[in-house]
Amino acid sequence: AGVLAAHKITASSPDTDLPTVSGLRKMGVNFTVSNKDTVKSSDVLFLAVKPPIIPFILEEVGPDIEARHIVVSCAAGVTISSIEKKLSTFCPTPKVIRCMTNTPVIVREGATVYATGTHADVEDGKLLEQLMTSVGFCTEVEEDLIDAVTGLSGSGPAYAFTALDALADGGVKMGLPRRLAVRLGAQALLGAAKMLLESEQHPGQLKDNVCSPGGATIHALHFLESGGFRSLLINAVEASCIRTRELQHLADQEKISPAAIKKTLLDKVKLESPSLSMASASKVSLFTNKSPSSKKN
Amino acid sequence: RGLGGGVSVRRPLAMEAAELRVGFVGAGRMAGGLARGLLRAGKVPASNILASAPSDKNLDAWRESGCRTTHCNLEVLQESTLVFLATKPHMLPAVLQEIRPAVGPHHIVVSLAAGVTLQTLQRLLPAGTKVLRLMPNLPCVVQAGAMVFARGSGAGDGEAALLKSLLSSCGLCEEVPESYINIHTGLSGSGVAYVYLFAEALAEGAVKMGMPGGLASRIAAQTLLGAAKMMLETGEHPAKLRGDVCTPGGTTIHALHQLEKGALRATVMNAVEAATNRARDMAKD
């Protein structure tokens, strides 16, 4: 998006074989295997590891966190207060922002929300918002809504991919070549989403506008209704949100066992902090157009 | 008796409702509903309304309202300009045959018979007769009906305007192509029953949760009335009105989820479709 020059971005990961690593290097991003180096050379620190790894990362980099750092956690289900608690043993007033984004940041059509922690200023939130707005929609929310956002737009692209796959199947069944079916299906959803975002009208009204009396579309919609299409989508958002809360609950109790952490990652980590009994896994402190695999929800 | 004679002098189309003589062949529930609507709205004085039926059973209520009654269908044609045919559909052909000699160019014949097409009506009546086909629904009785009508080849703008103006006193009245009439049956003719079913279920839900039945029923009805009124008065899309009621994480959205799980929308669409198809099938018989 041209918001940051590549040389101003540092990424770290213990695992240098990840395909994302070479991609980042090609972009001109500074790459290191040392999480500590990343912290030292950054002002805004994105923690993009899997949620169970967060506590260990915080232990590792805590001593290097200074007042200037804005720690942004993208980890699903990890609360601001849990991060602040961990960091407060190292730094009295850590600036923490929690954010939930989604994979289409890759194509600069992401949906991002953030909640600011106790010591993060308004300007800190605005800085993040400025960064994330360059890759899509970004707005501030109360932290207690982030689970719902996860269910809706965090997981949302997966629902869309599923729908698109099925729509393409429908097209193929009725005679279209697969590639064309996928292309048309995606364009249909893209166009519909764009219409909705640019319109004042309710989606129900936009739907009506497509349905000529007795026509093809209303016949098709009847099938969707019969299948409980709407309730399936409601169920999906609900399930994702509830699961996020469950994971958060488990994390709060620090019930994640070391076995949950990939063994390969443990083997490759170079320990710099003797106090750490458990190795850190891959951490990418990075603002990038290419989403590393650790961004999975 | 043929045309003319006695009171039924050939006169210019009585656009003044007060002068208009209205007749009903058949005096059952639907006819009664329309007449009551006309009377309550003060469109036609009771003395200008004449209804015929084979027995007195249905006619008592008409007389009590001040309307005139008879057992002779022909008399209705002779006394009235605007004639509603409100017999049961299967009886209509015989009735048409009976009244045909008395039908003249000044008459406006409006058939309420479900499933009897304009083509059939025109075939059984003198050529050029002004024929219209009306599909009302029961709440005409309380002046909250939904009615559609279609005109035959002999009926012109004047007749359509007259009918619309008169019947607007009973509720919503719109002219439509004849093909919409069966759909109207599925949507609104039968639709009233769907609403009663829904109201009953709402009340039962409330009773289950501890409210007395009578109160629950009245509140259910008022809820439907209020919601419908908002739709009609604001003109807003029902989806938007629905959204307006749903506070995030609140009671309404939880309840709506239940309705969606039960595929209520599809079921309702199925109902409208079934009734419409049945109306179409019956029309073919």
UniProtKB/TrEMBL annotation, chain A:
<feature type="domain" description="Pyrroline-5-carboxylate reductase catalytic N-terminal">
    <location>
        <begin position="7"/>
        <end position="77"/>
    </location>
</feature>
<keyword id="KW-0496">Mitochondrion</keyword>
<dbReference type="InterPro" id="IPR000304">
    <property type="entry name" value="Pyrroline-COOH_reductase"/>
</dbReference>
<keyword id="KW-0007">Acetylation</keyword>
<keyword id="KW-0560">Oxidoreductase</keyword>
<protein>
    <recommendedName>
        <fullName>Pyrroline-5-carboxylate reductase</fullName>
        <ecNumber>1.5.1.2</ecNumber>
    </recommendedName>
</protein>
<dbReference type="GO" id="GO:0004735">
    <property type="term" value="F:pyrroline-5-carboxylate reductase activity"/>
</dbReference>
<dbReference type="InterPro" id="IPR036291">
    <property type="entry name" value="NAD(P)-bd_dom_sf"/>
</dbReference>
<dbReference type="InterPro" id="IPR053790">
    <property type="entry name" value="P5CR-like_CS"/>
</dbReference>
<dbReference type="Pfam" id="PF03807">
    <property type="entry name" value="F420_oxidored"/>
</dbReference>
<dbReference type="Pfam" id="PF14748">
    <property type="entry name" value="P5CR_dimer"/>
</dbReference>
<dbReference type="InterPro" id="IPR029036">
    <property type="entry name" value="P5CR_dimer"/>
</dbReference>
<comment type="pathway">
    <text>Amino-acid biosynthesis; L-proline biosynthesis; L-proline from L-glutamate 5-semialdehyde: step 1/1.</text>
</comment>
<keyword id="KW-0641">Proline biosynthesis</keyword>
<dbReference type="GO" id="GO:0005739">
    <property type="term" value="C:mitochondrion"/>
</dbReference>
<comment type="similarity">
    <text>Belongs to the pyrroline-5-carboxylate reductase family.</text>
</comment>
<feature type="binding site">
    <location>
        <begin position="48"/>
        <end position="51"/>
    </location>
    <ligand>
        <name>NADP(+)</name>
    </ligand>
</feature>
<feature type="domain" description="Pyrroline-5-carboxylate reductase dimerisation">
    <location>
        <begin position="143"/>
        <end position="247"/>
    </location>
</feature>
<feature type="binding site">
    <location>
        <position position="35"/>
    </location>
    <ligand>
        <name>NADPH</name>
    </ligand>
</feature>
<dbReference type="GO" id="GO:0034599">
    <property type="term" value="P:cellular response to oxidative stress"/>
</dbReference>
<keyword id="KW-0028">Amino-acid biosynthesis</keyword>
<feature type="binding site">
    <location>
        <position position="13"/>
    </location>
    <ligand>
        <name>NADP(+)</name>
    </ligand>
</feature>
UniProtKB/TrEMBL annotation, chain B:
<keyword id="KW-0641">Proline biosynthesis</keyword>
<keyword id="KW-0028">Amino-acid biosynthesis</keyword>
<feature type="binding site">
    <location>
        <position position="73"/>
    </location>
    <ligand>
        <name>NADPH</name>
    </ligand>
</feature>
<feature type="domain" description="Pyrroline-5-carboxylate reductase dimerisation">
    <location>
        <begin position="178"/>
        <end position="282"/>
    </location>
</feature>
<feature type="domain" description="Pyrroline-5-carboxylate reductase catalytic N-terminal">
    <location>
        <begin position="21"/>
        <end position="115"/>
    </location>
</feature>
<comment type="similarity">
    <text>Belongs to the pyrroline-5-carboxylate reductase family.</text>
</comment>
<keyword id="KW-0560">Oxidoreductase</keyword>
<dbReference type="Pfam" id="PF14748">
    <property type="entry name" value="P5CR_dimer"/>
</dbReference>
<comment type="subunit">
    <text>Homodecamer; composed of 5 homodimers.</text>
</comment>
<dbReference type="GO" id="GO:0055129">
    <property type="term" value="P:L-proline biosynthetic process"/>
</dbReference>
<dbReference type="InterPro" id="IPR029036">
    <property type="entry name" value="P5CR_dimer"/>
</dbReference>
<dbReference type="GO" id="GO:0004735">
    <property type="term" value="F:pyrroline-5-carboxylate reductase activity"/>
</dbReference>
<comment type="pathway">
    <text>Amino-acid biosynthesis; L-proline biosynthesis; L-proline from L-glutamate 5-semialdehyde: step 1/1.</text>
</comment>
<dbReference type="InterPro" id="IPR036291">
    <property type="entry name" value="NAD(P)-bd_dom_sf"/>
</dbReference>
<dbReference type="InterPro" id="IPR008927">
    <property type="entry name" value="6-PGluconate_DH-like_C_sf"/>
</dbReference>
<feature type="binding site">
    <location>
        <begin position="86"/>
        <end position="89"/>
    </location>
    <ligand>
        <name>NADP(+)</name>
    </ligand>
</feature>
<keyword id="KW-0963">Cytoplasm</keyword>
<dbReference type="GO" id="GO:0005737">
    <property type="term" value="C:cytoplasm"/>
</dbReference>
<dbReference type="InterPro" id="IPR000304">
    <property type="entry name" value="Pyrroline-COOH_reductase"/>
</dbReference>
<dbReference type="Pfam" id="PF03807">
    <property type="entry name" value="F420_oxidored"/>
</dbReference>
<keyword id="KW-0521">NADP</keyword>
<dbReference type="InterPro" id="IPR028939">
    <property type="entry name" value="P5C_Rdtase_cat_N"/>
</dbReference>
